[in-house]
Inverse folding.
């Protein structure tokens, strides 16, 4: 049973934006548009009103949205029920994580899972870790790996798999615009160009660190993805903050140096995320329970 058209429809119905829905489902906007058009042709009605500026659900689209949600829920229930009676697990699980997490955490997990459940297919998607929790909450990924936020959304399960410190890093070679001796003064911190993540746990920790010291930092660049921060710092654009695990796995690790800033930034916990209700699935629970 191919449930992909329903999942594509719900992604667009929830976001009302072709670009964001396509990114969420890991397809091109043109693929998403064709899927919606085929669905409308099969139903004989328009599900969306769209122009160059906006996308809106029609009355028929709202009715079909409720049907699609109910159908996918029922599909999950019957699939889980059948899997419980099966002698050997089979099917597929979708997993989302950053490139760094894919070889620092996921590699050993997949290796062990593959040996135990050879008939289960893993669909791995990589991208910005700040989207990991959102993909799980929206139902477009079943499991993701990310940093634990300070508060967990209701209905979201978390299983810790590691802790990593957050590090201030600077270019290996001295730069004219960057001070070289620690500790930096408050004035120096306010003049140093900083390269930070756009959002997420690491950004929140950095913001809190500066706020507690009454420092208004000079943000040179805000980027998506920690790997890009290491790259920009290595080129001398400024000082950045990244998890140690990212630095240890970066091909540019020898181009930057760690600043022994005190007090240290609060480390963060990395782990698996899944919807609590999804853990009833034998497939997802098997992956979740890997030790």
């Amino acid at each position: 049973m191919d449930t992909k058209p329903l999942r594509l429809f719900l992604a667009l119905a929830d976001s009302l934006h072709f670009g964001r829905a396509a990114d969420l489902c890991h397809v091109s906007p043109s693929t998403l548009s064709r899927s919606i058009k085929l669905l409308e042709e099969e139903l004989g009605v328009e599900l969306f009103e769209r122009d160059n500026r906006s996308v809106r659900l029609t009355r028929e689209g709202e009715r079909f949205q409720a049907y699609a949600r109910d159908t996918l829920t029922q599909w999950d229930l019957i699939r889980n029920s059948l899997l419980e009676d099966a002698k050997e697990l089979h099917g597929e699980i979708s997993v989302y994580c950053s490139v760094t997490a894919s070889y620092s955490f996921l590699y050993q997990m997949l290796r062990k899972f593959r040996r135990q459940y050879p008939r289960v297919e893993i669909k791995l998607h990589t991208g910005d870790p700040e989207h990991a929790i959102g993909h799980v909450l929206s139902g477009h990924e079943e499991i993701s790996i990310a940093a634990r936020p300070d508060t967990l959304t209701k209905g979201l399960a978390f299983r810790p798999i590691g802790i990593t410190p957050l590090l201030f890093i600077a270019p290996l070679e001295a730069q004219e615009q960057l001070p070289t001796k620690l500790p930096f003064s408050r004035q120096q911190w306010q003049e140093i160009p900083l390269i930070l993540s756009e959002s997420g746990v690491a950004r929140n920790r950095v913001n809190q660190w500066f706020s507690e010291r009454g420092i208004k930092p000079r943000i040179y660049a805000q980027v998506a993805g920690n790997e890009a921060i290491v790259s920009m710092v290595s080129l001398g654009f400024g000082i950045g903050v990244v998890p140690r695990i990212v630095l240890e796995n970066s091909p540019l690790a020898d181009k930057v140096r760690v600043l022994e800033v005190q007090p240290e930034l609060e480390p963060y916990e990395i782990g698996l995320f899944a919807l609590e209700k999804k853990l009833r699935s034998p497939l997802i629970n098997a992956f979740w329970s890997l030790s």
The mean pLDDT is 89.
